[in-house]
Design a protein that fits this description.
- Keywords: Hydrolase, Membrane, Protease, Transit peptide, Transmembrane, Transmembrane helix.
- Belongs to the peptidase M50B family.
- It is a multi-pass membrane protein.
- By secondary structure, the protein is mainly α.
- It is built from 15 helices and five strands.
- It has a domain of 101 residues.
- It has a three-stranded mixed sheet. The chain has a two-stranded antiparallel sheet with strand order 4-5.
Length: 417
């Protein structure tokens, strides 16, 4: 996910028409040197490269340990204590299933970010190498980002740099899923995790899962996974949906699709925001971004409050949630009054829908991501000096990426039932 700084360049001096091309090149270099004086001094190369390598290695460790927990069906913190609790000779026993998750998953993220990087370099836009973000909970990472260090001057450049990452990552993610579906282990693998299933054989799902029974941690199935499973997987080896968490390659592929779709959200400076900006231009892209952001927050908070909620829920959480809505919507509208009215309208709509249909629920985890979008990356896309429309081929590719977003997206990649 690239985040361009887009600081306005210093104005070039007026150049007489009699200047030669060499004089113009010299003036451009002098203007660029004047601009770079305002930048933070560059760190030594060994420090910068060492930081990238260190973050990648730490993320490889956290995702490997997360893969060990995910294979056991747990969404937990990473168990670093296993390294000193188990003898060195037994480390491979818990690292191997984790590596079957972390290597393909980080491989997709790496290809995604280098797609942005090489597209930026093609246009001679300075960009950093990927910064991987380790995290000691859940899947072990928050993903990766690169930093664009120059201003992007055209709608085409925004489009190409934004599209290159998810397109490259999507191709590799499909390959990971295809390999995982065509190389499913026999049911003995599942019986090794759940020995009690052996008694029921291939029909274990009919007896194990009873209506109303908790299923634990469940991997979501986006439309693309369902289609690929129907075409590629051996039905005799394809596990029940509640057992997909035990298959590291499938988990890596589904999460890779989810991260691809997450970046393709057509909001602000996400990759999807760059694509929609390239397709629609600044004004229509801004309207689409605002409307989708409002719908995004509406869904995220759906079900938190209703007329059936406990009094303590309203007493302790109404004020923080109202303040949260104001914080995120203040960046979507120009005035405080409009932000308050929009916040009130969204909240009333959530309460009305949750009260009328009690089974409707959103995903409160998205509220954190919504806050990051509103306060850090921004809801609106920065303008470019060159607003010439895209070529027909790029437009077709852009709309195709939005179709890919629909095929890959799930509101919750991992469900707890």
């Amino acid at each position: 996910m690239p985040f361009p700084e887009n600081t306005p360049p210093l104005p070039l001096p007026d150049i007489p028409a009699s200047f030669t091309s060499a004089d113009r090149a010299l003036a451009a270099r002098q203007a660029q040197e004047a601009f770079t004086r305002y930048e933070r001094p560059t760190l030594p190369r060994w420090w910068r490269y060492g930081l990238h390598v260190l973050l990648f290695l730490v993320t490889l460790l956290t995702t490997t340990l997360a893969g060990f927990s995910l294979r056991a069906g747990a969404l937990d913190y990473v168990h670093l204590e296993l390294f000193w609790q188990l003898p060195v000779a037994q480390w491979s026993r818990f690292l191997e299933p984790g590596l079957w998750f972390s290597v393909p998953f980080l491989g997709v993220l790496t290809v995604h970010e280098f797609g942005h990087y090489f597209a930026a370099r093609y246009y001679r836009i300075r960009a950093t190498l990927p910064y991987f973000i380790p995290f000691p909970l859940g899947i072990g990472t928050f993903g990766a980002v690169i930093r664009i260090k120059d201003r992007i001057f055209s709608r085409r450049e925004f489009f190409d740099v934004g599209l290159a990452g998810p397109l490259a990552g999507f191709v590799v993610a499909v390959g990971v899923l295809a390999y995982g579906l065509t190389h499913l282990p026999p049911l003995d693998y599942l019986y090794g995790i759940h020995p009690e299933y052996r008694f029921y054989g291939a029909e274990y799902a009919r007896y194990v899962y009873q209506p109303g029974q908790s299923a634990g941690v469940v991997l979501a199935q986006p439309l693309l996974l369902q289609g690929m499973a129907a075409l590629l997987a051996d039905p005799a080896r394809m596990p029940h949906a509640n057992e997909l968490m035990h298959y590291p390659l499938l988990v890596a592929g589904v999460l890779a699709l989810f991260f691809t779709a997450l970046n393709l959200l057509p909001i602000g400076q996400l990759d999807g925001g760059h694509i929609v900006y390239g397709l629609l231009g600044p004004q229509r892209a801004a309207r689409v971004s605002v409307l989708l952001f409002i719908g995004f927050i509406f869904y995220a908070g759906l079900g938190l409050f209703s007329l059936r909620s406990e009094p303590n829920t309203w007493l302790y959480w109404a004020a923080p949630y109202g303040f949260y809505l104001y914080l995120v919507f203040r960046r979507a509208v120009p005035t405080v009054r409009r932000a308050l009215l929009l916040s009130a309208g969204v909240w009333l709509g959530q309460v009305a829908l949750a009260s009328a249909v009690p089974t409707v629920e959103g995903n409160p985890g998205w509220l954190v991501f919504g806050l990051m979008l509103a306060r850090l990356t921004g809801i609106f896309h920065p303008p470019a000096p060159d607003e010439r429309p895209l070529s027909r081929g790029r437009k077709v590719l852009g709309w195709l990426m939005l179709v890919i977003f629909v095929l890959c997206f799930t509101p919750s990649p991992i469900l707890i039932r």
